[in-house]
Design a protein that fits this description.
Oligomer: single chain
CATH superfamily of the largest domain: Trypsin-like serine proteases
Radius of gyration: 17 Å
CATH architecture of the largest domain: Beta Barrel
Distance between the termini: 32 Å
Number of domains: 2
Strand content: 25-35%
Structural class: alpha+beta
Length: 255
């Protein structure tokens, strides 16, 4: 596990700086972000669609490093961890399917990293600090809402953090403290997907929730993602499980 940690750290801690050759190597950043966006499935008999996410790096062994939401990996009500998943990057949510497993789960934010077997051939997207953006700057999202296939949505950046969130929401989703608002449509199934900026040429947030379809939506900001990536040793799956023991699902819980 320590060896895997060293590989992942070396693969993704250089996420901050722009690469001058990147514009030459890709048709456009938006095209690259679209290819790097994948759908997560639970590998049961029906191979059920579960969430979305983005490839942000790879290891020396040819595996992908995939960013998604914590609640896509660990149930927010019971803390039960999905140890085995699959990811597809195709537009129609078809194959090929890559085996994936969680390797880091944030103790504080709604963030998690998956290791994708043989996924290094997928282009990665760099993570940027959202605080460099201004109100009204264009942003976009690539996700798989309501299992409709890979979709792209455009919207506007608002601010780096909600001034406040409803108490009932934070009671259920404490990992949304410090999250940022965005004026952009997402829906169920978009959880874990990247929020991108063409100007920053990078991922500046992870979509995690919505008040209701078509209203202000909720994302974990890039600044929090960078903090998470720089503090991976304190956010291992083992440490998350120790801090959040799995419990039985409450009777009134609805998925």
């Amino acid at each position: 596990m320590k060896f895997i940690l060293a590989l992942v750290l070396s693969a993704i801690l250089a996420i901050g700086g722009l690469r001058a050759s990147e514009a030459i190597l890709t048709k456009s950043f938006e095209h690259r972000a679209t290819i790097a966006s994948g759908a997560i499935f639970l590998p049961d008999q029906e191979r059920r669609f579960h969430c979305s996410g983005t490839e942000i790096g790879h290891t020396a062994y040819g595996d992908g490093v995939f960013l998604t939401a914590r609640h896509c990996v660990a149930d927010y009500n019971t803390y039960e961890i999905n140890r085995h998943m699959q990811v597809s990057f195709s537009d129609d949510q078809g194959g090929p399917f890559y085996d994936a497993k969680p390797i880091y789960i944030s103790l504080n934010d709604d963030l998690a990293l998956l290791l994708i077997r043989d996924g290094a051939n997928i282009p990665e997207v760099r993570v940027r600090d959202n605080r460099r953006l201004r109100n009204g700057d264009p942003i976009f999202n690539v996700s798989f809402p309501l299992s409709t296939g890979k979709q792209k949505f455009h919207g506007e950046y608002m601010r780096s953090e909600f001034p406040s969130l409803p108490e009932w929401m934070l009671k259920t989703y404490s990992m949304w403290l410090g999250s940022m608002p965005m004026n952009m449509t997402i829906a169920h199934g978009s959880s874990g997907s990247g929020v991108f900026s063409n100007r920053q040429r990078g991922l500046i947030g992870v979509a995690v929730g919505t008040f209701e379809e078509g209203s202000f939506n909720i994302a974990i900001p890039g600044s929090h993602i960078l903090d998470f990536l720089n503090d991976l040793p304190d956010n291992t799956v083992e440490k998350f499980a120790a801090a959040h023991p799995a419990k039985e699902q409450s009777e009134d819980f609805e998925e």
